[in-house]
Structure to design on (422 residues):
């Protein structure tokens, strides 16, 4: 869908790489600009090859998951020649995505104002903690700082304890999706008008948009409204939450007001319909814990979690088993749809990563995806896009203007040059 578009990826870790990976899977040519000497800092996370002889390789499962389908170009932009190469690539590209702290690109001479002088049709997207303007704009930070500033963290955890830590980078992934969506819209705008533009996406903005109902409530009610931490229960009642079935088996149940009668019928507890603690949504909300005890005692009477789910589903009460990660990864539904994707790396081996979240009727995402080692496409980028000669490329290696994984075969010219010098 995006074939013919070239994207420069100046990002690291999760949010930025998620954005550019989506663009790559949609057909764009994505060139990942990795800073010398070590490249994306995500390369040191995740699992590395088990072969101890490959301990120094740049490849890792973490890097593969977030950066497959891209071309790696390892460059030192602190050298003037490296900076010139990046600017030359900008002149031949459609999109640039970066997620440095605000101000870093400008100090390097790579601000949108600088780059739009080189390429007026450039679409540039900056991803950061809190945006490029405002009191927090100069503050560096990661996903969990965004959740804290957006009022998300304060609502997570048990009521009698402090806030809980999110166990995964939800905001990073969502911000990456937001950025990819925004770039798609900007490309459509450019097709219609010929105009490039600058896009900001921030973790705080993305997280704040995740509040489902509490923003207007807090605005209207002021200090009289305080969202509470409810642990495994949803604060709006329902009953909605995570309920213990047997042992360490849990079921997620969500009962809307119009489904309450179905829940009573399944449980064979008609008396709950007239119980003042549970006879309306507000009462069920206020007596959440008591209702949870009743439901968990009922669930404990089933032989298994699956039997309890079958009973709930018979009356179309929304529910799901709370699967472990291993259970989710082996579920036939996730496997059949490609939600769990099996990949093979030439030095790490076979392992699973998440698949593309969206499914298209007119576009098949590539199945056999690969992730470059650091600098693996240096020669292709410099030779095919910037028309450099083999001698010029070899000199860039000697000067350490460009870098590559030590386990990649050295370019022929570089090897001969080094032999001559020795």
């Amino acid at each position: 869908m995006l074939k013919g578009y070239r994207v420069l990826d100046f990002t690291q870790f999760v949010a930025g790489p998620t954005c550019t990976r989506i663009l790559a899977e949609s057909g764009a040519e994505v060139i990942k600009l990795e800073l010398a000497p070590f490249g994306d800092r995500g390369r040191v996370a995740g699992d590395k090859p088990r072969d101890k002889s490959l301990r120094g390789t740049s490849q890792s499962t973490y890097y593969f998951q977030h950066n497959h389908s891209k071309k790696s170009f390892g460059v030192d932009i602190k050298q003037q020649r490296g900076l010139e190469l990046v600017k030359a690539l900008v002149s031949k590209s459609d999109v640039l995505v970066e997620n440095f702290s605000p101000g870093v690109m400008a100090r390097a001479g790579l601000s949108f104002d600088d780059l739009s002088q080189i390429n007026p049709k450039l679409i540039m997207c900056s991803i950061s903690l809190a945006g490029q303007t405002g009191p927090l704009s100069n503050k560096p930070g990661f996903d969990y700082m965004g959740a804290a500033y957006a009022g998300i963290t304060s609502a997570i955890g048990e009521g009698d304890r402090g806030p809980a830590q999110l166990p995964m980078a939800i905001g990073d992934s969502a911000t990456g999706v937001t950025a990819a969506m925004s770039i798609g819209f900007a490309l459509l705008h450019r097709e219609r008008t010929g105009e490039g533009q600058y896009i900001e996406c921030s973790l705080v903005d993305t997280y704040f948009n995740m509040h489902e109902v509490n923003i207007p409530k807090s605005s209207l009610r002021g200090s009289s409204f305080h969202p509470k931490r409810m642990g495994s229960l949803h604060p709006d009642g329902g009953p909605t939450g995570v309920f213990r079935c047997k042992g360490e088996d849990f079921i997620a149940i969500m009962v809307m007001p119009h489904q309450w009668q179905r829940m009573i019928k399944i449980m064979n507890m008609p008396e709950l319909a007239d119980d003042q603690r549970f006879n309306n949504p507000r009462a069920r909300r206020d007596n959440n814990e008591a209702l949870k005890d009743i439901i968990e005692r009922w669930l404990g009477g089933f032989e298994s979690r699956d039997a309890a789910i079958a009973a709930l589903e018979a009356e179309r009460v929304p529910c799901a088993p709370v699967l472990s990660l291993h259970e989710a990864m082996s579920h036939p539904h996730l496997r059949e749809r490609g939600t769990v994707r099996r990949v093979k790396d030439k030095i790490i081996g076979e392992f699973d990563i998440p698949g593309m979240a969206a499914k298209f009727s007119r576009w098949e995402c590539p199945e056999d995806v690969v992730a470059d080692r650091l600098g693996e496409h240096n020669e292709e980028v410099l030779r095919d896009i910037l028309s450099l000669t083999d001698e010029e490329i070899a000199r860039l290696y000697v000067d350490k203007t460009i870098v590559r994984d030590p386990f990649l075969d050295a370019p022929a010219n570089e090897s001969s040059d080094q032999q001559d010098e020795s």
About this structure: The longest strand covers residues 29-35. The chain has two domains: 6-208+337-415, 240-326.
